[in-house]
Amino acid sequence: MMWMIIGIGCLVSIYAIVVLERRLVYKTWEFGYPVAAFASYFIQENVKPRKRDKTFYETAPILFITVAVLAIGIFPWAESSVIANMATGALFFNAALAYIMVALVMAGWAPNAVYPMIGGWRFMGQLIAYSMPIVMAITATVMRAESMNMMAVVESQTGLWNIVYQPVGFLLFYAASLALTFLPPFDLPNAPGELEGGVFAEFTGTRLLIFRLGRIILIFSLSLGITHFFLGGWAGPFLPGYVWVFLKTILVACSFFVVGNLLPRFRHDHTLEWSWKLATPLALFNILWVGILLLL
Amino acid sequence: MGGNFIIVMNIIRLSILIILGLGAIWFAWRVFMTSSMVRSALSLLASMAILGMMFLVMEAEFLGVLQIMMMATEMSIMAIFMMMYMMDPGGMGNMDMSHQKKLSIGTSLVAGAMVIVAVSFSNWETIATEVPTPAKQNYDLGMELMKRSMMIFETAGTSILVAMIVSTATALPFKNKKDD
Amino acid sequence: MSALQQYTILFGMIVGTLGFVIVLYLLHRKMVKMRKEPAKDIPAESGRLQPKPAWGRYHVHYYGYALLFLAFDMEMAYMYPWAVIYKEVGITALLDMGVFLLILFLGLLYTWNQGGLKRQ
Amino acid sequence: MIELIVVLSVGAVLFGIGIYGALSQTNLVMIMMGIELMLGAAMLNLVAFWRYLHPEEYSIQMFVLVGMTVMALEAAVGFAIATQRFRTKGSVEMEEASDLKE
Question: Same structural domain for residues C27 and C74?
Fold first, then answer.
């Protein structure tokens, strides 16, 4: 029963995220948009480029959606319901998301075309930029919880959420997750209007559908990650725990779209410079901050 | 009933290990058999990730997840360096890039066979059946890091520093003071 | 639940996703027919034909960062077990990790000083 | 017992393939791939020894961590050398690198 509710909740929140993206980015309410988009991609022809790398061309979309789904698996939904209660959950989240980059590099390489390839290598550069801040922010939450288990991370936040306890870590994690989901302002790998769609340029039909779906699931799992690492997970008054999880997740996803629309696009070398000259020292400072607070 | 269940579990685990091992060997072989550079880098990644899964089956959870994660970034960086330096990274021309074939095949066969013979004829005394839970492993590994292996840990830090300085000093173009 | 059961569940999630994708592909193949037209399969290049394959040498301008990242990345292998026991060990752990991170930070500063942190 | 032997044999075969790659390839980056394979085989063996012989010894896990570090550092230094050779000679083929002997 519980799992039914959670499954339906996941589907509903993914649907809601797509509708809200329509509202926040294109300023129109279209409640049927997800179904229409699904159908329109589904009836498209599968046009494949001429001299492609066949294995990678097939593997890339599947790897992309699989790791996005796997990243959801370790998060708890309420006090005692979690799909896989791994003792190394926080690290596993990181490890799954590293393969997003592998999938995009594959997708960029496979079609033997110039625009996707540039998009793929750019995302590699973006990984070099966002990887250190995201890892160090997670380490700081692990320090507070004294365990890498996600249940322990959420339970350590009773009373004071991590967003108050370590605001610097939250900001770094937030910016890094924008870069990881390649939303604007970090949407250089698929840069619409510059690279003709970048890594997705040569994918049509069902493969593009899988990519789009995987991207939405990726946004969902990253918002879920922020909810659990920094916003107290299932904690909240009156309502049952899983309702709070879904509410917070949808709110975080909406804030992604709003923030993305407000900022100008970053060039990828500027992303790298800001990350290594500002964000990495800040992340080290955040660890020191949490360390001193914990010892007091 | 309990005994039967354990035996079945052991057989399943053994067969998973064998399948994963064969997969790792297959991908490791593909690394040197293809002329497309990104393909060989990503085959190496697949082989290493399968090794990580074998660590997971052997219940070394932290090491397995860490291996799966580290290798993703490392091998992709390897792919970009291949792209930068190879004449023909796409492997469109099917160039042969190997030399001293007989010597290397002979050496590898001799080395592998020697190790396998040594493995199968040595006397492994007692095989442990139970391992600590992953949570306890994480805790104990941290304690090991802070107590007994502290010098190893700090030495690793200095060697990372040395590697950073060496690679920076070697790879970057000479700085021209007048340009600053 | 033991650790191995959890890996089985995660593997089940992988298989489930794979099954979904494969069902989608099969349905698509049944329902949608591909029309044959000449030159449909040429990669997009803003209206011009590709002069040569795209799989050539490509200068990655961020290789300085990549070299630094390869070495710097290893720090997290030591950081996670440390973070788990940090609160229990206390000030010793803070000092240990402080020295370790200071050493790594020196490397970052050196690379910055040598001009590694810019587009090459 | 049989699991240990299976895992160690996989390690041995990977080690053999690594030796083959390191000896037969002419390209510096490909040679490094062979070396990484050998290090990976060594790590696999270490984990197997930890799991089946001494589950209480955490210095073995520490050794695996050090092995991973060595892998990353070897890659970083190797790429740096490759970059420098490419800048001065225009190629990373090791057959042309005999000038390093003199």
Answer: no
Asked whether residue C100 is domain-assigned, the answer is yes
Which CATH fold would you assign to the domain D2-92? Helix Hairpins (1.10.287)
Contact by Cβ (8 Å): A218, A225: no
Q: Which residues pair with A76 in a beta bridge?
A: A82
> Does B141 share its domain with B69?
no
Quickly list DSSP for A229-282. HHS-TT--SSS-HHHHHHHHHHHHHHHHHHHHHHSPPPPHHHHHHHIIIIIHHH
Please determine, for residue B177, whether its predicted confidence score (pLDDT) is greater than 60.
no
Q: Check whether residue B7 and residue B61 sit in a common domain.
A: yes
Contact call for A112 and B68, based on CB within 8 A: no
Q: Minimal Cα distance from C106: which residue of B?
A: B161
Judge if B85 and B141 occupy the same domain. Answer: no
D25 pLDDT more than 70: yes
Find, among A165, A184, A98, A83, the residue nearest to A135 by Cα: A98
Contact flag A295-C91 (C-beta cutoff 8 Å) = yes
Q: Of A85, A95, A80, nearest to A135 (Cα)?
A: A95
Cβ contact C69–B73 (<8 Å): yes
Query: What is the reported pLDDT for A183?
Result: 83
Q: How far is CA A197 from CA A120, B39, B151, C60, in A?
A: 11, 24, 50, 20
Predicted-complex ipTM score:
0.91
Would the pLDDT of C51 be above 70?
no
Could you report the per-residue pLDDT of B30-56, keeping only the tens digit for each? 888 887 888 888 999 999 999 999 999
Give the count of domains, chain C: 2
Domain boundary among B89, B106, B123: B89
Q: Kindly write down the DSSP assignment for every residue of A212-235, as one continuous string.
A: HHHHHHHHHHHHHHHHHHHS-TT-
pLDDT digits (tens, 9 = 90+) for A40-78: 888 888 888 878 888 888 899 999 999 999 998 888 888
**Continuous H helices in A30-113:** 33-42, 54-72, 89-109
The single-letter DSSP state of residue A198 is G
Check pLDDT > 90 for residue A173: yes
Taking the C-alpha atoms of residue A175 and residue A283, their distance in angstroms, rounded to an integer, is: 12
Domain range enclosing B58:
1-89
Domain boundaries, given as residue ranges, for chain D: 2-92
In angstroms, the CA B109 to CA B55 distance is 26
What CA–CA distance (Å, rounded) separates B24 from B28?
A: 6
> Do B82 and B31 belong together in one domain?
yes
Q: What is the pLDDT of residues B116-154, one digit of tens each?
A: 888 888 877 778 778 888 888 889 888 888 888 888 888
Residue B95 confidence (pLDDT): 67
Query: Residue B157: its chain A contacts at CB < 8 A?
Result: none
Cβ-count burial B55-64 (b if 16+ within 10 Å, e if not): bbbbbbbbbb
Q: DSSP state, B177?
A: G
How far apart are the CA of D10 and the nearest CA of chain B, in angstroms? 6
Domain residue limits at C89: 60-120
Residue B58 domain-assigned? Answer: yes
Closest C-alpha to A96, from A74, A121, A76: A74
pLDDT band, very low/low/confident/very high, at D96 (cuts 50, 70, 90):
low
- Chain A interface includes C30 (CB < 8 A): no
| Residue of C64, C75, C83 lying closest to B172 (CB–CB) | C64
For chain B, the first-to-last Cα distance in angstroms comes to: 78
Cα distance between residue B176 and residue D55, in whole Å: 55
Q: Least CB-CB distance to D24: which of B41, B54, B99?
A: B99
The per-residue pLDDT for range A219-272, each reduced to its tens digit, is 999 999 999 999 888 887 888 878 888 999 999 999 999 998 888 888 888 888
